[in-house]
Amino acid sequence: MTIPTHVQAMLARMRARFTPEKLRAQMEARNAPFRTLRPVRAASEKSVLGYWDRLIGPATKADQDLIADPATLQTAEVYSGNIENFIGTVKVPVGVIGPLRVNGVNAAGDYHVPLATTEAALVASYGRGAYAATKAGGIGTAVLYEGVIRTPAFVLENILNAGLFVEWVATHVEQLRAAAEGTTRHGKLTSIEPVIDNDVVFLICRYTTGDASGQNMVTIATHALCEAIARDCTVPIFKWYIEGNFSGDKKASALGLMTGRGRKVSASVILSDAVIAKVLGTTADEMLAYGRIADLGAKLSGQMGAQAHYANGLAALYIATGQDAACVAESAVGFTRMERRDGGLFCSVTMPNILVGSVGGGTGLPSQSAGLNVLGLKGTGNGAALAEVTAALCLCGEISIVAAIAAGDFTRAHENLARLR
């Protein structure tokens, strides 16, 4: 057996920097006194400046411009419901693309889409995809499924009691639904699906959440459901947990890919050969040729689904509109398809885990509220439309990147817009 050269090189670099004795002393546990920061939710100008003065050091002019700017200080209270130990805001550049024409079940119109990112070339790429799609007549979209899940876990004595527990749950569904829905005006419990693993039972609790993304909503509702089970169930329960790590919350999972978590949306457009040539600088055949290689790469690497870069558009849109950015981990799975059709090149995405809301969470904060206003999708009645625009945006990104790589333009675009700026 031989040690790979890159491992040998790493060891050599470490030896050049450290001796074992120095590292041993450096890595020993230290019991020096410290004073921890307790979670404080109430925010004010005084509390923000207090953190800077006591913990970080007096804010310099640069700090004030970037972190605790005057406008933030004057409105510090509005952030109290979204963060603890508030010290200011971080400014992320926001670009806009559009119009992106969407001809959907819920979203119908021309949208200008704000994207918050520090990655040069991203806005240009999505903008090019949006231009191509809009010239082709727009993107058709539909929400196919809606349901946010929470999966509590119950530990029983043995597999027999696990079965009896499931039987009890199945015969008390209405009681449990009442307990869950009693915590929310907008959430509706649509199903409880048991999964048994010997003496452990997971309950897949599915909810519709109105126009909110619904993460906190379903957690609170499921907690009430679990408390009702713990109080009334005739089968002894050793222990229960509000989340058994089965739901796919903020992680890619096969369950989410197959059944969806949030809103499942499909979006498609047919690009004519003329649009592909003029806007994208390539041909349908070249895009299909690269698409076959990309699909093979996805399969061989074990990708969850098959797509190019949903996460780029999702992260930029989520940050710009006050969504939970961590949900990109589960939202960025799905399937991109490209096929030759009579009218040109059929391009589609199907994304089962889009978690967005037009109300709640961070959507009411000043900058994020402005982002939703740019879209025209702020407030009640716009949650499903926002999900469809999100899928349409991701399709634009897929079209643009596939065309760029197929045409050999991908590196040049990043050199021109990023590295050589």
Observed structural traits:
421 residues, alpha+beta, Alpha-Beta Plaits, 3 domains, eleven-stranded mixed beta sheet, 11 strands, globular, hydroxymethylglutaryl-CoA reductase (NADPH), HMG_CoA_Rdtase_eu_arc, EC 1.1.1.34, HMG_CoA_Rdtase_NAD(P)-bd_sf
Instruction: Tally the beta strands.
Output: 11
User: Helix count?
Assistant: 17
Q: Structural class of the helix and strand makeup?
A: alpha+beta
Largest sheet geometry: 11 strands, mixed
Q: Could you tell me the CATH topology label of the largest domain.
A: 3-hydroxy-3-methylglutaryl-coenzyme A Reductase, Chain A, domain 2
The helix content, as a percent range, equals 40-55%
Uncertain stretches: none
Question: Averaging pLDDT over every residue, what do you get?
Answer: 92
Radius of gyration: 25 Å
CATH class descriptor name of the largest domain: Alpha Beta
Shape: globular
Q: Kindly estimate the percentage of residues that lie in beta strands according to DSSP.
A: 15-25%
The H-and-E topology, N to C, reads as HHHHHEEHEEHHEEHEHEHHEHHEEHHH
